[in-house]
From TrEMBL:
It comes from Cohnella phaseoli. One of its GO terms (biological process) is transmembrane transport. PROSITE patterns: ABC_TM1. One of its GO terms (cellular component) is plasma membrane. The chain crosses the membrane at residues 12-32, 77-98, 110-129, 185-206, 261-280. Keywords: Cell membrane, Membrane, Transmembrane, Transmembrane helix, Transport. This is Carbohydrate ABC transporter membrane protein 2 (CUT1 family). It comes from the Bacteria. InterPro entries: MetI-like, MetI-like_sf. Residues 73-274 form the ABC transmembrane type-1 domain. It is found in: Cell membrane. It is a multi-pass membrane protein. PANTHER family: ABC TRANSPORTER PERMEASE PROTEIN MG189-RELATED-RELATED, POLYGALACTURONAN_RHAMNOGALACTURONAN TRANSPORT SYSTEM PERMEASE PROTEIN YTCP.
Length: 295
């Protein structure tokens, strides 16, 4: 390919990528913009706004007037942090043990782990197990059923197997036991893969709502995503937050539309997990690359 053709190719490729990036950013811009308008602007501009003329935080003020949003955020943070930490712990222990090629019964255990990936237990049997373990209406109902992620066990096992055996042999010669070997050598070297797996698990916990709908009657542990789901299915959300007892509550300038409330709650439910991602991006990319290369 000549120099001129190469430049044309690069320009066209960059334009296409830029166009696709802008296209994919439109929904995010729409959600943020809609969360920053009052009812008057929403009515005047026909309900589809990509750039607010008079941005206001009134929707966020209305949402944080009560305790529902803060309670849902707290429940989601507890579930995500506790669930991710415990799943990483159990996954790492299982993966490290299964990475030992001389482990008795290793192949049958790997087979049963693979079966759980291909075949699920089903909703009703899982519910019966959770009920019989007396986990209903507790945060443990959202964590214990998925305490071991089978796919992550296989990925992390492969990562442990890719670590040079000479490191393990030299540590054993120096007198390191299994606990020291795992905690001081293997886990630090597997940190990128664990960060990548932890990100996946954390996002999954943060975005989950269906299990809370099934297992929890008490709203104390309802996550933010379930609150968003309930708000989107409610037809009276605007009247609920536009309290008529407030000053000038009937003035559209001081009111907020139901759509703006919904979009504001979506931003609240999305922003925390977006803020975590940049801190894990470096480890995430490294973990994906190293986990995909054998040797």
């Amino acid at each position: 390919m000549s120099n001129g053709n190469e430049k044309v190719y690069q320009a066209v490729s960059s334009a296409i990528v830029l166009g696709l990036t802008l296209l994919s950013a439109i929904p995010l811009i729409y959600v943020i913009s809609m969360s920053l308008v009052n009812e008057q602007e929403w009515i005047d501009r026909g309900g589809f706004i990509l750039w607010p003329q008079n941005p206001t935080l009134i929707a966020y003020e209305r949402l944080f007037q009560g305790t529902a949003v803060l309670q849902a955020l707290s429940a989601t943070v507890v579930r995500t942090v506790l669930g991710t930490a415990l799943v990483l712990l159990m996954t790492t222990l299982a993966a490290y043990v299964l990475s030992k090629r001389n482990l008795p019964g290793r192949k049958p255990m790997l087979f049963f782990i693979l079966v759980t990936i291909l075949i699920g237990g089903g909703l009703i049997p899982t519910y019966l197990v959770v009920r019989d373990l007396h986990l209903l209406d507790s945060v443990w109902a959202l964590i214990l059923p998925g305490l071991v992620d089978s796919w992550s066990v296989l990925v992390l096992k492969q990562f442990f197997e890719n670590i040079p055996g000479e490191l393990e042999e030299s540590a054993v010669i120096d007198g390191a036991g299994e606990v020291t070997l795992m905690s001081k050598i293997m886990i630090p070297m597997a940190a990128p893969a664990m960060a990548a797996i932890g990100l996946f698990i954390g996002v999954a916990h943060w975005n989950s709502w269906f299990d809370a709908l099934i297992y929890l009657d008490d709203s104390k542990w309802h996550p933010i995503q379930l609150l968003i789901r309930n708000m989107f299915s409610s037809s009276e959300i605007g009247a609920q937050f536009n309290n008529a007892g407030q000053h000038n509550a009937f003035n559209p300038v001081n009111r907020v539309s139901a759509e703006s409330l919904k979009m504001a709650l979506v931003v609240i439910g999305t922003l925390p997990i977006l803020c975590v991602y940049p801190f894990l991006q470096k480890h995430f990319m490294k973990g994906m690359y190293l986990g995909a290369v054998k040797g």
